[in-house]
Amino acid sequence: MGTVVGIICEYDPFHRGHRRQFELIRERLPGARIVCLMSGPFTQRGMPALHAPAMRARAALEAGADLVLELPCAFSVREAEAFALGGVSLLTRLGFVTHLSFGAEDGLEALWPAVELLEAPTPAFKNALRASLGRGLSYAAAQGQALDCCLDVSGEPPWKKPNNILALCYLRALRRLDSPLIPLPVCREGDYHAAGLSPRTWPSATAVRAAFLRGDEAAVRDACGYELPAAPVCLPDALDRVLLYKLRAQSAQALALLPGCAEGLENRLKACAAQAATREELLLRLKTRRYAYARLSRLCCHALLDITGDFLSAHPLPTYARLLGLRRGAALPDLRQSAVPVLSRACDSASPDALLALDLRAYDLWALGAGLAQGLMRTQAVTRV
To answer: Is residue 376 predicted with pLDDT exceeding 60?
Structure first.
């Protein structure tokens, strides 16, 4: 089969920085084929993607990807560790992907010590983690402080750099799954969370979304290299009232079933939802030192999609991928022979399971926010370029 490089991505939206990753991969591995495993209508930030999966898949294919698959929603709207584990598991079980590429500020030699400590924590690490949690820090912050205590590095610790954080999760997933995929980090150029756009630097998706939402078409065109369609889009606040209704209508006991909603957070969520008029206001009311904004955003997304902790425990790994698009003439294996099912339509599954039902629900919610009819996932055709 030759070299096939997998990328776990969101492309919300696809921009010049993503195209640059394709170029860097092929500079190091000439002739490599690129398989993108992309989030569907909702992203790891706990937000609806601006554009539909089909449009984002087309942008990736036109930029040089050979195949775009969709990561089931149960994993695309999770914290970094579960997001990475689900993606690496799928790419590994496809059976033909040889490498995993991801952005990072540092090389593998700087990342592996942290990976080993996180996967096989020492007593000193456990004690430091427990102490930091006892001071009211979020789990991510406490984990970072524990690494600070146990690993001696010069300069800024690699686990505090934004791309490295997800890179560490990918490497941990490779180790945990004993995956044969070869890690292929590419240097991230530019600030992952940069709020502004400049023609002299590589863009961030955050900045591109902000420019799109304020109507700065020239800046978006420069950052992406193509025209982002004005419709259909699901704006960040399009589902606010749906979310607030669901939170207000449910009991605190029902909210306690949401993933990570414990220690009385369900009561706080219920009370804040009764007062907030928007999702943003809700998150600002909820946020504390212990509960970070990103975690609370995903909690709201889980409530919107009716995802419970028990549901996620019952589905620890993806059971399929969905085919979003492919390049005509790409020398790819017969996807029907893959070790994990690759569905080209919603009805392709012989026995539709709960993960697929969640995907259908996510598409319908995204369509509602975008002003489209129900059934988007069933009618979405495979994109071919």
So the answer is: yes
**Of all helices (H) and strands (E), which one includes residue 187?**
strand 182-187
- The answer to whether the Cα torsion of 337, 343, 348, 349 is positive or negative is positive
Q: Is the dihedral of CA 285, 166, 301, 196 positive or negative?
A: positive
pTM flag (> 0.90): yes
Cis check for the bond before 13: say yes or no (omega within 30 of 0).
yes
Alpha helix (H) residue ranges in the chain: 16-28, 53-62, 73-76, 80-94, 108-119, 123-134, 139-150, 162-177, 205-213, 217-224, 240-249, 252-255, 265-275, 279-286, 293-305, 309-314, 354-370, 376-379
Q: Coil, strand or helix: which one is 107?
A: coil
Residues 6+ apart with CB under 8 A from 288: none
Q: What is the DSSP string of 190-251?
A: S-TT--S--TTS---HHHHHHHHHTT-HHHHHHHHSSPPPSSS---TTTTHHHHHHHHHHS-
Taken in order 109, 114, 119, 123, the sign of the CA dihedral is positive
**Contact predicate 317/89, CB 8 Å:** yes
- Name the one residue in this structure whose structure tokens are 């790994």: 317
Quick: pLDDT tens for 177-198.
999 999 999 987 655 455 567 6
